Amino acid sequence: QVQLVESGGGLVQAGGSLRLTCAASGRTFSTHHMGWFRQAPGKEREFVAAITWSRTGTIYADSVEGRFTISRDSAKNTGYLQMNSLKPEDTAVYYCAAHTMFTKATTWRYWGQGTQVTVSS
Known about the structure:
By secondary structure, this protein is mainly beta. 0% of the residues lie in helices and 50% in strands.
């Protein structure tokens, strides 16, 4: 079992930065891949970024490639999403997820409750 809690969301102007944090509990988090997804009002949840349990691999959505960086600290059971050069279209609720499969699909097993990110123009 893995429990996930996101934090770090907020209101930021376009061009600004935010760092989201995902605090995990449960002994098996270190053997699970970690991902970030987002859902804007009226839209389906979409993939943002993911990192393997061993930190050897990362993947990003085309829309955030070069602006966002995913990382994790297994010793602290914590994951991060550094978001730079934010755009109004990045406004969404951001969710942390954990799964044993490394995929862009939204079928991850464990989810946090989400944190709101709002980017003003």
